[in-house]
Prior knowledge:
Elements: H1 4-21, H2 29-38, H3 45-58, E1 61-63, E2 70-72, H4 74-82, H5 85-88, H6 91-102, E3 113-122, H7 126-138, E4 146-150, E5 155-156, E6 159-160, E7 165-171, H8 174-182, E8 188-198, E9 201-210, H9 218-224, H10 230-236, E10 239-249, H11 253-266, E11 272-275, E12 280-281, E13 284-285, E14 290-296, H12 300-307, E15 312-315, E16 320-322, E17 327-328
Antiparallel strand pairs: 1-2, 3-7, 3-15, 3-16, 4-7, 4-17, 5-6, 8-9, 8-10, 10-14, 11-14, 12-13
Helix pairs in contact: 1-4, 2-3, 6-8, 7-10, 7-12
Amino acid sequence: MIGQETRDVERKITAILKILSESPLPLGSRIISRLLEEQGIYLGERAVRYHLKIMDERGFTRSVGHKDGRTITAPGLEEMRNSLVTDKIGFIGSRIERLAYQTSVGLRSATGRVPIDVSLFAREDLPRALKIMKGVFANGLCSSNLVALAGDNSKIGDVTVPGGKVGMATVCSVAVNGCLLKAGIPAYARFGGLLQVRGGQPFRFVDLVEFSGSTIEPADIFIAGKMTTVLDASLTGEGKVLAGYHEIPMLSINKAEELLQRLKTSGLISFAMIARPGEKVCERPFNPDRAGLITLSGLNPVAAVIESGIEAVKWAMAGLAEVTGLHPFADLI
């Protein structure tokens, strides 16, 4: 069995690896110590250097320059993905809560930051990808019609766009949770799922993955498993799209409905659906003490692109972006 002291060391190593993986530049012990503190992990510079020495010996990091700057290696990235699976259970739900709290968009003004999903395409594939995504946005099968493009070596959210690629940000559905929270309404993220569309309208959930019990973003599972048919839904009104399943307090229903209508009118979100306590929404019975809330994923457009055979890399909940830097998808066509 792994001792508690060993587990603590491994957790700190994983945290440092994650910090290095998100930085485009080498980082020294002072900066790493500060970034760890922001996550509630208190390691002084000397302790960070101790952990970095272990990571160097394992081949997870390499030293850059004459100072203590480090970058993550390919084995380090693999270790970060595989390490301490029990600690990653519930990670998705925690990230939703963190990004919801960080959402700062004004409820009555188009300023502030919202969570985003990010997708990367080869530059030569972008025109065809945009053509495919047009129907997804036009039919309201995405969390929002607002997007942003980023070129080589620029940063979009937490993602740095590599050479030869184009990055595209879409508004993450967590923006709805964040706006509700800002208005004093907590939204409890329960499931990510596949929502069946019939006649162009949401019909029922056909698959659900509980956020609190998963180490992988549900959208990644469904896209990788070729379980989505977003393109069909955009062309024929029949298909399976990525959606989120949440709950809000019963007493907040009227206030939540008013807020969601304002968000739709402002153009920040395209779709959000509330069911009152005891009702079934998309054939799913909700907690009788809470109202149900369904949102559509910001990754539905890239799911349609991938279904069409175009290669793309995607990140759900890939940081935050200024609303003023986002523009209607129709402006790209």
